[in-house]
Amino acid sequence: MASEGSTYGDIHRYEPPRESTAAAVGIVLLTIIQVGLVGLFTYGMIAGWASGIGTSLTLRLIEANMFMGGVLTAIFIDLAFIMLLYRKEFLPDVMIVKKRRRKWEDLYIRQEDVDGTTVADGDKLAETFKRAVYPYYKK
What we know:
two-stranded antiparallel ribbon, 55% helix
């Protein structure tokens, strides 16, 4: 569905989401895995796996820290896949009409001075220079 309007804010293209059942089941399964990983990480923090409580060797402490880091990595990767599936399958693809302009145009000079001024205009050149140097110069 596309509209022919060219005013700002009009919807130029709208494609509805697919909303597949397989994606919904995948999101539910990934969410269950996510809850399990968060529970494992929380239990590890409470039990002191990464703080060295109950460990006698430095090597065990390093392995515990690596394990906790791996669990935290798995949490964020799983969350990324959940968000990827949700965005791809359940959000519509919408393109909105916007005005294109140069980045510096609105900050430094007035609309009628976009093309520049001549060097011969002494007062106007000085005013344009003041506006370029002081972008928040009062009008």
